[in-house]
Amino acid sequence: MKSFFLVIFINAIVFVIGFFLANYFCYRLYFESEIKEKPTPLVDTHIPQFNLLYPKYIVIPYTDLTNLFNDKNNINQGRKPVGLEYKSKPILIFGDSFAHGQYLNPNQNFGYKLSQLLKRPVYNRAIPGSGFQHMYFQVSPTYSDEFFKVIPKTDDVIYIMILDHYLRMLIFSDFSVIGDNFHVRYSWKNNKLVMDDYNSKWLNFLKNSYLIKAINLKYLSFTIGCPLFAERYTQKALIYFLETRKSLEQHWNNKIKFTVILYENKPIAYKSLLKQKLLENNFNVIETSELTNEDLDTGIYLMPENLHPTEAAWDLLTPKIAERL
Predict the structure, then answer these.
(1) pTM of the model
(2) Residues 31-55: pLDDT tens digits?
(3) Is 69 exposed, middle or buried (0-12, 13-18, 19+ CB in 10 A)?
(4) I need a surface site. Which of 80, 118, 126, 178 has the fewest CB within 10 A?
Protein backbone atom coordinates (compact mmCIF):
# COMPACT_ATOMS: atom_id res chain seq x y z
CA MET A 1 0.00 0.00 0.00
CA LYS A 2 2.86 2.36 0.87
CA SER A 3 4.45 1.77 -2.52
CA PHE A 4 1.10 2.56 -4.18
CA PHE A 5 0.87 5.97 -2.52
CA LEU A 6 4.56 6.58 -3.18
CA VAL A 7 3.99 6.00 -6.90
CA ILE A 8 1.03 8.40 -6.85
CA PHE A 9 3.09 11.01 -4.99
CA ILE A 10 6.04 10.73 -7.37
CA ASN A 11 3.75 10.94 -10.41
CA ALA A 12 2.07 14.02 -8.95
CA ILE A 13 5.46 15.68 -8.41
CA VAL A 14 6.56 14.80 -11.94
CA PHE A 15 3.28 16.16 -13.34
CA VAL A 16 3.60 19.46 -11.45
CA ILE A 17 7.22 19.93 -12.54
CA GLY A 18 6.37 18.98 -16.12
CA PHE A 19 3.38 21.35 -16.16
CA PHE A 20 5.54 24.21 -14.83
CA LEU A 21 8.35 23.58 -17.33
CA ALA A 22 5.92 23.26 -20.25
CA ASN A 23 4.35 26.59 -19.29
CA TYR A 24 7.74 28.26 -18.91
CA PHE A 25 8.98 27.07 -22.33
CA CYS A 26 5.65 28.13 -23.83
CA TYR A 27 6.06 31.59 -22.35
CA ARG A 28 9.67 31.93 -23.59
CA LEU A 29 8.78 30.72 -27.08
CA TYR A 30 5.93 33.20 -27.52
CA PHE A 31 7.80 35.96 -25.67
CA GLU A 32 10.62 35.77 -28.19
CA SER A 33 8.22 35.81 -31.14
CA GLU A 34 6.24 38.79 -29.80
CA ILE A 35 9.19 41.04 -28.96
CA LYS A 36 10.59 40.45 -32.46
CA GLU A 37 7.44 41.89 -33.99
CA LYS A 38 7.57 45.60 -34.69
CA PRO A 39 5.00 47.10 -32.30
CA THR A 40 2.64 49.78 -33.52
CA PRO A 41 3.34 52.91 -31.46
CA LEU A 42 -0.40 53.66 -31.29
CA VAL A 43 -1.32 50.57 -29.29
CA ASP A 44 -0.31 49.04 -25.99
CA THR A 45 3.03 47.23 -26.30
CA HIS A 46 3.10 45.91 -22.74
CA ILE A 47 4.55 42.38 -22.50
CA PRO A 48 3.69 40.70 -19.19
CA GLN A 49 6.26 38.93 -17.04
CA PHE A 50 6.06 35.18 -16.45
CA ASN A 51 3.47 34.40 -13.80
CA LEU A 52 1.89 30.97 -13.52
CA LEU A 53 0.32 31.59 -10.14
CA TYR A 54 -3.33 32.48 -9.66
CA PRO A 55 -3.61 36.09 -10.89
CA LYS A 56 -4.20 38.56 -8.08
CA TYR A 57 -6.07 41.02 -10.26
CA ILE A 58 -8.48 39.87 -12.96
CA VAL A 59 -8.56 42.20 -15.96
CA ILE A 60 -11.54 41.71 -18.28
CA PRO A 61 -11.21 44.18 -21.15
CA TYR A 62 -14.23 45.97 -22.61
CA THR A 63 -16.44 45.47 -19.56
CA ASP A 64 -15.92 48.82 -17.83
CA LEU A 65 -18.00 50.81 -20.30
CA THR A 66 -19.38 53.64 -18.17
CA ASN A 67 -16.91 56.26 -19.43
CA LEU A 68 -15.69 54.50 -22.56
CA PHE A 69 -17.78 56.26 -25.21
CA ASN A 70 -16.18 59.68 -24.97
CA ASP A 71 -14.26 60.16 -28.26
CA LYS A 72 -11.14 61.20 -26.32
CA ASN A 73 -9.00 59.43 -28.91
CA ASN A 74 -9.45 57.46 -32.12
CA ILE A 75 -7.78 54.29 -30.90
CA ASN A 76 -9.29 52.70 -27.80
CA GLN A 77 -12.03 55.10 -26.68
CA GLY A 78 -15.60 54.66 -27.86
CA ARG A 79 -17.52 57.06 -30.07
CA LYS A 80 -19.96 59.70 -28.92
CA PRO A 81 -23.39 59.73 -30.56
CA VAL A 82 -23.60 61.84 -33.72
CA GLY A 83 -26.46 63.49 -35.58
CA LEU A 84 -28.27 64.52 -32.42
CA GLU A 85 -29.57 67.56 -34.29
CA TYR A 86 -31.88 65.23 -36.23
CA LYS A 87 -35.23 64.36 -34.66
CA SER A 88 -35.83 61.02 -36.37
CA LYS A 89 -35.33 57.63 -34.69
CA PRO A 90 -31.67 56.77 -34.07
CA ILE A 91 -29.60 53.94 -35.52
CA LEU A 92 -27.63 51.70 -33.16
CA ILE A 93 -24.31 50.22 -34.31
CA PHE A 94 -22.40 47.31 -32.77
CA GLY A 95 -19.11 45.77 -33.83
CA ASP A 96 -15.38 46.10 -33.32
CA SER A 97 -12.67 48.50 -34.50
CA PHE A 98 -13.98 48.45 -38.10
CA ALA A 99 -17.42 49.68 -37.02
CA HIS A 100 -15.80 51.99 -34.46
CA GLY A 101 -13.57 53.60 -37.09
CA GLN A 102 -10.31 53.01 -35.27
CA TYR A 103 -7.54 55.46 -36.28
CA LEU A 104 -10.10 57.63 -38.12
CA ASN A 105 -11.30 61.05 -36.99
CA PRO A 106 -14.90 61.30 -35.74
CA ASN A 107 -16.10 62.69 -39.08
CA GLN A 108 -14.37 59.97 -41.12
CA ASN A 109 -16.00 56.81 -39.77
CA PHE A 110 -19.02 54.80 -40.85
CA GLY A 111 -21.37 55.99 -38.11
CA TYR A 112 -20.84 59.68 -38.86
CA LYS A 113 -21.20 59.25 -42.61
CA LEU A 114 -24.35 57.14 -42.19
CA SER A 115 -25.86 59.77 -39.92
CA GLN A 116 -25.18 62.53 -42.45
CA LEU A 117 -26.62 60.53 -45.34
CA LEU A 118 -29.81 59.39 -43.61
CA LYS A 119 -30.26 62.51 -41.43
CA ARG A 120 -30.63 60.36 -38.33
CA PRO A 121 -28.86 60.16 -34.97
CA VAL A 122 -26.36 57.30 -34.73
CA TYR A 123 -25.25 55.67 -31.49
CA ASN A 124 -22.03 53.80 -32.19
CA ARG A 125 -21.47 51.17 -29.49
CA ALA A 126 -18.68 49.39 -31.35
CA ILE A 127 -15.63 48.54 -29.23
CA PRO A 128 -12.14 47.98 -30.69
CA GLY A 129 -10.97 44.39 -30.23
CA SER A 130 -14.41 43.09 -29.35
CA GLY A 131 -16.78 40.50 -30.80
CA PHE A 132 -20.31 39.11 -30.65
CA GLN A 133 -20.13 38.62 -26.88
CA HIS A 134 -19.39 42.27 -26.22
CA MET A 135 -22.50 43.27 -28.15
CA TYR A 136 -24.55 40.93 -25.98
CA PHE A 137 -22.74 42.01 -22.80
CA GLN A 138 -23.98 45.57 -23.24
CA VAL A 139 -27.66 44.53 -23.25
CA SER A 140 -27.33 41.62 -20.80
CA PRO A 141 -28.46 41.90 -17.16
CA THR A 142 -24.85 42.53 -16.14
CA TYR A 143 -24.75 45.93 -17.82
CA SER A 144 -28.15 46.62 -19.41
CA ASP A 145 -29.32 49.19 -16.84
CA GLU A 146 -26.38 51.40 -17.76
CA PHE A 147 -26.85 50.78 -21.48
CA PHE A 148 -30.53 51.67 -21.60
CA LYS A 149 -29.93 54.85 -19.61
CA VAL A 150 -27.95 56.33 -22.50
CA ILE A 151 -29.32 54.60 -25.61
CA PRO A 152 -32.79 55.80 -26.69
CA LYS A 153 -35.42 53.53 -28.14
CA THR A 154 -34.91 52.55 -31.75
CA ASP A 155 -35.90 49.87 -34.23
CA ASP A 156 -32.77 49.93 -36.44
CA VAL A 157 -29.69 48.01 -35.31
CA ILE A 158 -26.53 47.24 -37.30
CA TYR A 159 -23.69 44.84 -36.56
CA ILE A 160 -20.52 44.89 -38.68
CA MET A 161 -18.86 41.47 -38.71
CA ILE A 162 -15.38 40.42 -39.80
CA LEU A 163 -13.71 37.00 -39.86
CA ASP A 164 -11.93 37.52 -36.52
CA HIS A 165 -15.21 37.56 -34.61
CA TYR A 166 -15.36 33.77 -34.63
CA LEU A 167 -12.01 33.64 -32.81
CA ARG A 168 -13.01 36.31 -30.30
CA MET A 169 -16.24 34.46 -29.56
CA LEU A 170 -14.45 31.18 -28.89
CA ILE A 171 -11.21 32.22 -27.22
CA PHE A 172 -10.69 30.74 -23.75
CA SER A 173 -8.82 33.61 -22.13
CA ASP A 174 -6.55 35.90 -24.19
CA PHE A 175 -5.57 36.66 -27.79
CA SER A 176 -1.92 36.24 -26.82
CA VAL A 177 -0.30 33.22 -25.18
CA ILE A 178 1.69 35.54 -22.91
CA GLY A 179 -1.19 37.98 -22.39
CA ASP A 180 -2.61 38.52 -18.92
CA ASN A 181 -6.20 39.49 -19.72
CA PHE A 182 -9.33 37.35 -19.46
CA HIS A 183 -11.77 38.23 -22.21
CA VAL A 184 -15.54 37.99 -21.86
CA ARG A 185 -16.73 34.49 -22.58
CA TYR A 186 -20.17 32.88 -22.45
CA SER A 187 -21.49 29.34 -22.60
CA TRP A 188 -24.97 28.25 -23.68
CA LYS A 189 -26.57 26.60 -20.66
CA ASN A 190 -30.24 25.94 -19.93
CA ASN A 191 -31.28 27.95 -23.00
CA LYS A 192 -29.41 31.09 -22.00
CA LEU A 193 -25.97 32.65 -22.29
CA VAL A 194 -24.02 32.27 -19.05
CA MET A 195 -20.83 34.25 -18.48
CA ASP A 196 -17.75 32.44 -17.18
CA ASP A 197 -17.30 32.60 -13.42
CA TYR A 198 -14.43 35.04 -12.98
CA ASN A 199 -14.44 34.40 -9.24
CA SER A 200 -13.52 30.75 -9.75
CA LYS A 201 -9.90 30.28 -8.67
CA TRP A 202 -9.62 26.98 -10.53
CA LEU A 203 -10.98 28.38 -13.79
CA ASN A 204 -8.79 31.47 -13.47
CA PHE A 205 -5.74 29.29 -12.87
CA LEU A 206 -6.46 27.37 -16.08
CA LYS A 207 -7.07 30.59 -18.02
CA ASN A 208 -3.72 31.89 -16.78
CA SER A 209 -1.77 28.84 -18.05
CA TYR A 210 0.43 29.62 -21.07
CA LEU A 211 0.25 25.99 -22.16
CA ILE A 212 -3.55 25.96 -22.13
CA LYS A 213 -3.70 29.29 -23.95
CA ALA A 214 -1.32 28.00 -26.62
CA ILE A 215 -3.35 24.81 -27.10
CA ASN A 216 -6.60 26.77 -27.25
CA LEU A 217 -5.30 29.23 -29.87
CA LYS A 218 -3.77 26.47 -32.00
CA TYR A 219 -7.01 24.51 -31.81
CA LEU A 220 -9.05 27.51 -32.91
CA SER A 221 -6.68 28.40 -35.75
CA PHE A 222 -7.12 24.82 -37.02
CA THR A 223 -10.89 24.52 -36.58
CA ILE A 224 -12.14 27.95 -37.68
CA GLY A 225 -12.84 27.50 -41.37
CA CYS A 226 -12.90 23.71 -41.15
CA PRO A 227 -16.21 22.42 -42.61
CA LEU A 228 -16.65 20.01 -39.70
CA PHE A 229 -17.19 22.98 -37.37
CA ALA A 230 -19.49 25.02 -39.62
CA GLU A 231 -22.72 24.10 -37.84
CA ARG A 232 -21.30 24.53 -34.34
CA TYR A 233 -19.62 27.90 -34.89
CA THR A 234 -22.38 29.51 -36.94
CA GLN A 235 -24.92 28.42 -34.35
CA LYS A 236 -22.90 30.03 -31.58
CA ALA A 237 -22.72 33.27 -33.56
CA LEU A 238 -26.46 33.14 -34.28
CA ILE A 239 -27.25 32.77 -30.58
CA TYR A 240 -25.54 36.08 -29.79
CA PHE A 241 -27.60 37.86 -32.44
CA LEU A 242 -30.83 36.24 -31.27
CA GLU A 243 -30.22 36.97 -27.59
CA THR A 244 -29.16 40.57 -28.25
CA ARG A 245 -32.24 41.27 -30.36
CA LYS A 246 -34.43 39.56 -27.78
CA SER A 247 -33.09 41.80 -25.00
CA LEU A 248 -33.57 44.97 -27.06
CA GLU A 249 -37.11 44.05 -28.09
CA GLN A 250 -38.13 43.12 -24.57
CA HIS A 251 -36.81 46.34 -23.10
CA TRP A 252 -38.17 48.67 -25.78
CA ASN A 253 -41.30 46.64 -26.48
CA ASN A 254 -40.95 46.92 -30.24
CA LYS A 255 -39.64 44.88 -33.14
CA ILE A 256 -36.03 45.44 -34.19
CA LYS A 257 -34.87 45.62 -37.79
CA PHE A 258 -31.47 44.02 -37.28
CA THR A 259 -28.94 44.20 -40.13
CA VAL A 260 -25.70 42.21 -40.14
CA ILE A 261 -23.05 43.64 -42.49
CA LEU A 262 -20.40 41.12 -43.53
CA TYR A 263 -17.27 43.19 -44.10
CA GLU A 264 -15.30 40.99 -46.50
CA ASN A 265 -11.80 42.38 -46.49
CA LYS A 266 -10.99 38.74 -45.68
CA PRO A 267 -13.30 35.85 -46.63
CA ILE A 268 -15.71 35.11 -43.80
CA ALA A 269 -15.77 31.43 -42.87
CA TYR A 270 -19.09 29.63 -43.34
CA LYS A 271 -20.58 32.75 -44.94
CA SER A 272 -23.34 30.96 -46.85
CA LEU A 273 -24.48 28.92 -43.86
CA LEU A 274 -24.33 31.88 -41.49
CA LYS A 275 -26.26 34.06 -43.93
CA GLN A 276 -28.89 31.35 -44.36
CA LYS A 277 -29.38 31.06 -40.61
CA LEU A 278 -29.62 34.83 -40.17
CA LEU A 279 -32.17 35.19 -42.95
CA GLU A 280 -34.24 32.31 -41.60
CA ASN A 281 -34.38 34.18 -38.29
CA ASN A 282 -35.48 37.46 -39.86
CA PHE A 283 -32.16 39.29 -39.82
CA ASN A 284 -31.14 41.39 -42.80
CA VAL A 285 -27.73 40.54 -44.28
CA ILE A 286 -25.55 42.82 -46.41
CA GLU A 287 -22.34 41.46 -47.92
CA THR A 288 -19.79 44.05 -48.96
CA SER A 289 -18.97 41.84 -51.95
CA GLU A 290 -22.53 42.55 -53.14
CA LEU A 291 -21.95 46.29 -52.88
CA THR A 292 -18.64 46.61 -54.69
CA ASN A 293 -16.08 44.72 -56.74
CA GLU A 294 -13.26 46.72 -55.18
CA ASP A 295 -10.70 44.85 -53.07
CA LEU A 296 -11.20 46.22 -49.55
CA ASP A 297 -7.97 44.61 -48.36
CA THR A 298 -5.59 46.75 -50.36
CA GLY A 299 -4.90 50.10 -51.97
CA ILE A 300 -6.73 53.22 -50.86
CA TYR A 301 -9.23 51.20 -48.79
CA LEU A 302 -6.82 49.83 -46.20
CA MET A 303 -4.36 51.47 -43.80
CA PRO A 304 -1.16 49.46 -44.41
CA GLU A 305 0.29 50.20 -40.97
CA ASN A 306 -2.65 48.81 -38.99
CA LEU A 307 -4.87 46.97 -41.54
CA HIS A 308 -8.05 48.93 -40.84
CA PRO A 309 -10.49 50.55 -43.29
CA THR A 310 -9.63 54.03 -44.48
CA GLU A 311 -12.08 56.87 -44.90
CA ALA A 312 -12.13 56.00 -48.62
CA ALA A 313 -13.55 52.57 -47.75
CA TRP A 314 -16.47 54.16 -45.90
CA ASP A 315 -16.94 56.76 -48.62
CA LEU A 316 -17.37 53.85 -51.01
CA LEU A 317 -19.56 51.61 -48.84
CA THR A 318 -21.73 53.91 -46.73
CA PRO A 319 -23.96 55.29 -49.53
CA LYS A 320 -24.54 51.73 -50.78
CA ILE A 321 -25.36 50.50 -47.27
CA ALA A 322 -27.68 53.47 -46.74
CA GLU A 323 -29.58 52.54 -49.90
CA ARG A 324 -29.99 48.96 -48.68
CA LEU A 325 -31.18 50.11 -45.27
Answers:
(1) 0.90
(2) 767 665 544 444 455 667 777 776 6
(3) buried
(4) 80
